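Researcher: I'd like a candidate sequence for this fold, 152 residues long. If you have to choose between options at a position, lean toward the conservative one.
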């Protein structure tokens, strides 16, 4: 394998804020540990998980009702945060306190949680399609009227 020199490292790390310090540190390590080879790669996987957020008429004082909405090629993976209908349960929603709690924070929590425990998986080709929740959304409550859902 080719040895990575300082110029190649600088090019690899061109967007690093403290590139020269990083290059010096990496060069020091690979000079001591010859089997280590620096490689650029993406940190983590990117998942496109379809979700639906229902904002009630009491939003932002109450959290949205959230669902995973699998496509026809996906199945719901139930677990600590997802039930068989795709309803999402997260401590962030249970502990909702406006104005500290908001949609941006909720989505960030979902990204973290679903990155560790993806709520969907690929449907086996022999499995029949999932019966999606009706477009009307979650069960209606007399004192709350959901607004149109936000889909991501």
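Model: Candidate sequence:
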């Amino acid at each position: 394998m080719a040895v990575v020199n300082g110029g190649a490292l600088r090019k690899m790390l061109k967007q690093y804020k403290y590139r020269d310090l990083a290059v010096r540190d990496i060069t020091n390590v690979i000079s001591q540990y010859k089997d280590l080879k620096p490689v650029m790669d993406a940190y983590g996987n990117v998942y496109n998980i379809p979700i639906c957020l229902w904002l009630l008429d009491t939003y932002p004082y109450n959290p949205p009702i959230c669902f995973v909405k699998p496509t026809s090629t996906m199945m719901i993976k139930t677990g600590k945060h997802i039930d068989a209908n795709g309803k999402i349960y997260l401590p962030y929603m249970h502990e909702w306190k406006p104005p500290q709690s908001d949609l941006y924070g909720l989505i960030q929590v979902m990204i973290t949680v679903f990155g560790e425990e993806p709520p969907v998986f690929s449907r086996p080709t022999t499995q029949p399609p999932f019966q999606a929740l009706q477009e009307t959304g979650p069960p209606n409550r007399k004192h709350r009227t959901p607004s149109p859902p936000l889909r991501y």
